[in-house]
Amino acid sequence: MLPKAVQRVIEQFGRLPGVGQKTAERLTFYLLKQHSQKLEDFGDAVKTLRQNLVFCKKCHNLSETENCIICENPKRDTSVICVVEEVLDIMAFEKTGDFNGLYHVLQGVISPVNGISPQDLTIDALHKRVENQNIQEVILATNPTIEGEATALYISKLLHPLEVKITRIARGLPTGSDLEYADRLTLSRSLQGRQDY
Prior knowledge:
This protein has helices at 4-14, 21-33, 36-47, 69-72, 87-96, 123-132, 146-159, 184-192; strands spanning 54-55, 62-63, 77-84, 101-105, 137-140, 165-168. It is of the alpha/beta class. The protein starts with a helix and ends in a 5-residue tail after the last helix. The longest helix has 14 residues, at 146-159. The protein has 2 domains: 4-47, Helicase, Ruva Protein, domain 3, CATH 1.10.8; 75-168, Dna Topoisomerase Vi A Subunit, Chain: A, domain 2, CATH 3.40.1360. It has 8 helices and 6 strands, in the order H-H-H-E-E-H-E-H-E-H-E-H-E-H. The strands form 2 sheets. Strands 4-3-5-6 form a 4-stranded parallel beta sheet. It has a two-stranded antiparallel sheet with strand order 1-2.
């Protein structure tokens, strides 16, 4: 019923994570209503998205230069590295404004089911950073999933001989939640991660 050009755009939007058929249709028809210059700007932005991007040589964050702006910032605490799974995790931490150290992006997690081994990640590069730089603490900030926990445990064992402080982000109840709806594991971890009040 729709022209092929419109169907093609709907299909492309539908391939994006979290975008269903209705949302894909709404996005497509929104673009159709835009001035041609705005549409060209949008298309150019998507078309050139990967052309000027590289992974930072130090932390594997996205960058337009050899080293990202976080690694090049002289005001950052270079003695602390927060290990995250993906670049989006850095954005989440940076929005809090509470962390002033460096990052290391693993670019995934260990997942034998999906054929992802430690060698497929940037774990060796992390080991070299900790070994060759004056790193005092490594914060393991992988997600609290089976794969995230396995990856954190692997890294912890790998870095243990280097005598660096290894910590894990706290896990527990989110603000505003009800205890009655929390699962056993979440409640258990919230008790284990309790702090002085």
